[in-house]
Write a structure and sequence with these properties.
By secondary structure, the protein is α+β, with helices and mostly antiparallel strands. It is about 25% helix and about 30% strand.
Length: about 180
């Protein structure tokens, strides 16, 4: 890990100490990000990707999402579904290099199962490229990427999403009006 990356990661873990419950700082491979929750996040889901090379299974990593409260306590973990049973068949060359991705529930689906969405303050996305991998942990090209999505201060999750939907509507309407004026 480079010195600049180490400093950024340490600062991130000091600001958000609850992240240490979900991954280790020394495994982070690029600067973590913090951004407001957006509409695209609602369609995100945890997944596991894998591929076969002849008779050897490799993992392409997995992405997990977590709904967290103000203190970073876990409200819900969005895990990928169980790994599929796709096997290499020596008599079917098309299976020799097969790859697949197994997805879980979306953020939107997970939120719909919650009784009180007002408690949701963060959505944490952790991509771990070493999950069930045969790669060495010391390999610098494989590790963890972190993105923390936050509900803006003085907003609750449900009203923030409504606000984003309205902003999208007005932006689209203004774009259409501008095109008509050309």
């Amino acid at each position: 890990m480079s010195e600049a990356l180490r400093i950024r990661v340490e600062a991130f873990f000091r600001l958000f100490p609850f992240i240490a419950e979900f991954t280790e700082a020394h495994r982070v491979e690029e600067p973590p990000t913090v951004q407001p929750i957006d509409l695209d996040l609602l369609d995100c889901c945890g997944y596991t990707s894998a591929w076969h090379r002849r008779w050897i299974d490799y993992s392409g990593g997995h992405e997990l999402l977590y709904l967290l409260d103000e203190e970073g306590n876990l409200i819900k973990e969005l895990r990928p579904s169980d790994r599929g049973n796709v096997r290499t068949n020596i008599f079917r060359p098309s299976t020799w290099f097969a790859s697949w991705s197994i997805e879980g529930e979306t953020v939107h689906e997970a939120i719909q199962t919650q009784d009180n969405t007002d408690d949701i303050r963060y959505v944490l996305k952790v991509f771990d490229s070493l999950h069930e991998s045969r790669f060495l942990h010391s390999d610098p090209s494989h590790g963890v990427k972190i993105a923390l999505y936050k509900v803006p201060k003085d907003w609750v999750f449900a009203y923030w999403i409504i606000h984003l939907e309205q902003a999208m509507f007005y932006d689209l309407r203004d774009s259409l009006v501008a095109m008509d004026e050309l």
